[in-house]
Amino acid sequence: FMQFPYKWWPDDCTGFSFIWNEEDHLVAINEFPHGPVKDGKSWLQDIFGFYTIDGDANILMGWNVGMLTREVELLSDDVVSKGCQYILNKFLGAKYNIPPPESVTRTKWYSNEHFRGSFSYRTVDSDKLNATAEDLAQPLLANNGKMTLLFAGEATHPCFYSSAHGALESGVREAQRIIDLYASPREKSCRIAIIGGGMAGLGAATTFLQAGIEDFLILEASDKLGGRVDTIYLNGNVLELGAQWLHGTSNYLHRLAEENNLIVDEASEEGVGIYVRNDGYIFEDFMVKKIDFIVGKILEECENFVDSEKYPFSVEEFLEEEFKKHLRDNPNEDKEFVEKALELYDWHYRFQVIDNSCHRLKEVSAKDWGKYSFIGTDRQKHMNLRNGYKSLVDILLKSIPEQSSLLETPVLKIDYSKAKIRLDCRGNLTILADHVIATPSIGFLKQNLLQFQPPLPDITRKTIDSLGFYGIGKIYLVFEEKWWKVDGFQLVWKRNTILGDDRDWIRYVSGFDTVFNQTNILVGWIGGDGIEKMESLCEEIVGIHCVEVLRMFLQDPSIPLPIKVIKSTWISNPWVRGAYSHTTPACDRAGCGPSTLAVPVTMDGVPKIFFAGEAVHESHFSTTHGAFESGERQAGNLLKFFRRYKL
Ligand SMILES: Cc1cc2nc3c(=O)[nH]c(=O)nc-3n(C[C@H](O)[C@H](O)[C@H](O)COP(=O)(O)OP(=O)(O)OC[C@H]3O[C@@H](n4cnc5c(N)ncnc54)[C@H](O)[C@@H]3O)c2cc1C
């Protein structure tokens, strides 16, 4: 941290990143011959930039990384300070008059014997050894089998290693292990254990009840039933943090919603309002419609690969190739048109990343693109529920006896090696059951936090590993009053725009839409690589970033800050870890997908574990009705088994 006597950089500058050319390697060593050198490069080249700090007007912070960091820590403050001044002057001296710093403060994490560095990362060696964070998190047992030494810390977190929240979660995890150890053991038994009380779990429970079977228990990790349905109430109306719309008819949930008069006439649409660029340019309607039509047509063509032997590697490959082909086939279009078309294409790409809940479209299988099926008219694509999705869950729960579910009861281990399946749950609770319907999300299952004894069959494990699962984020901006006159703002970026600061995550927001039944609220949709950053920021900062970007796009500095921000956190949710699933090129290669996950796991010819959930539905994956139906189906399969053997 270099504290200068005054701020010598411009107000709108947030920092300087340094790029070196080959010739300068030697020059740097000759001109500043102090400190370590490796492979012909001075330690100074590992300082990749200097950046401003919020709230500290005269300070620049430099980041030093790489092989020489440890040796740099041993240099005197004076050498480090002079070295930093040398590079600042070398890169910026021609433009700015840079005064010497008043003081330099630096970190020495490696020299600190209590840390020896900053944080952990996965190495090629750990891959080779198949050594994971979960291995490190396994407690050591004494001779009597009792846990004696437990490990927590960022390095033991399977997905949030290297982060403060990962470290915190790991501490909670291990403390919970000890609490469980000392909780007095309890045991319950039931004929069927249903893991998870989301739509799939409720679908299974409803089916058993309809068949006259009441001897089941829903074991739900969180403190409520509904899973990825999460309705909250604001201003007397609903906001959905999870599932938003009912998609289509001819399914149980739609029938139930109709019977109970839950569906309103007003249907929603996506991608409405104005398409506006970060320089304030508003795209002409005809242009927006034209690109929408072209992209829509290409994606429709992609559906044909479902019956084809030959298919492209991924949706991304097909979409990009065909879109470029379209531009090539229309050489009369001028340069400006092509540029705008590519900018709008980028919006569609972002939209599809969100819609498919993936990182990138290259993770989405082109072969299976046509498998998703929608039944209904255009107006039934995005149906709104009068009192929110929770009202549907509440109706389902009316017929499920309260004592049939245990909340805050995560299942940690399933031992299906014997006739009675043993489920170890948090709180030293053991459930003995004959059959299990397991409905945790693919995101949860991928973490391997639920242990299976014996391990799951190869094809089941392979399917869990191969299916894609990532996130969707929603950001509700609540304003004092409505200041917009359009139905939404779709954000189109000039190509290659990088904000280059803390707000970079906003590049992954498709736009801000109006919200059904809420006059003064806008909702931002985000996916891809921006979502984890968004989830990690506090609401206030998220709100400020969103409004700053809206001000930039609409060229209107008077847009007010929101009075409240509400955001979803599905990736951080330890029992879900994202939004929904998709099939991937890895599934194509391995010949697996929802149907292979639907095959029951057996022991001695008896079906023991049935997986259910949105990811287990061949054609309605990613939806609530698909999840419900998969639960119904797997319960139905178990009932068939009972009938066949008169059980
Ligand atoms: C932001 C967002 C928007 C969406 N929009 C729509 C939409 O508009 N329309 C639509 O149809 N669908 C939408 N979906 C998808 C829909 O919500 C899901 O497909 C559906 O709710 C999944 O139900 P499920 O039962 O398969 O899984 P879940 O709802 O995830 O239920 C599984 C349950 O298992 C519990 N669990 C996990 N691990 C354990 C364990 N070890 N022990 C005990 N319990 C455990 C979890 O807490 C969870 O409650 C959206 C989802 C998100 C996140």
From TrEMBL:
Domain Amine oxidase per the UniProt entry, residue ranges: 38-179, 199-638
Molecular function, one GO term: polyamine oxidase activity
Annotated Pfam families: Amino_oxidase
Record-linked PANTHER family: AMINE OXIDASE DOMAIN-CONTAINING PROTEIN-RELATED, FLAVIN MONOAMINE OXIDASE
Protein name: Amine oxidase domain-containing protein
